[in-house]
Amino acid sequence: MDILLLIMMIVSIILIVVSFFLPDHTKELSDDVEQLSIQMYQESFQIKKRLKVLEEELLIPNPNDLDKQSLSTKKPNQIIVGQVRLLKDQGLTIEQIAKQSALTEDEVRQILETQGWSSNE
């Protein structure tokens, strides 16, 4: 019995010593994960950079041009046209109509002109 216990102690000591000299697989895995993470961040940065360039060049027009286009090509909602017409019938000025209808004065003038009203009143 003592011999068996002694053999088990020696084997355990040998295994402990050997475990110190074996390569650490978790360190390798940790390094691999770190490298993969760095690559992902770099690729993500490159994609965002390319997307920003694409948006700037192709997809998003100049905001000043967009405002001019929206005034000339946007057809107002019939409810808003009715509201502007009703407010004009009540004798309100263009400035007052613009405040109450959440439109710009130019939009109010454009609506009134399309409805046949004189906008210089």
What does this structure look like?
This protein is mainly alpha-helical and 121 residues long. The mean pLDDT is 82. The chain contains six helices and no strands. Helices cover 79% and strands 0% of the residues. It has helices spanning 2-21, 25-59, 63-73, 78-89, 94-101, 105-114. α4 (78-89) packs across α5 (94-101) and α5 packs across α6. It starts with a helix and ends in a 7-residue tail after the last helix.
Give the tags.
rod-shaped; 121 residues; mainly alpha; 79% helix
Largest sheet: none
Summed up, the helix count is 6
Say how many strands there are.
0
Radius of gyration: 38 Å
Terminal residue distance = 116 Å
Uncertain segments: none
Secondary structure category = mainly alpha
Mean pLDDT equals 82
Strand content: under 5%
Helix-strand sequence? HHHHHH
Helix content, binned percent: over 70%
Topology, please?
Blueprint: H1 2-21, H2 25-59, H3 63-73, H4 78-89, H5 94-101, H6 105-114
Helix pairs in contact: 4-5, 5-6
Produce a short descriptive summary.
It is built from 6 helices and no strands.
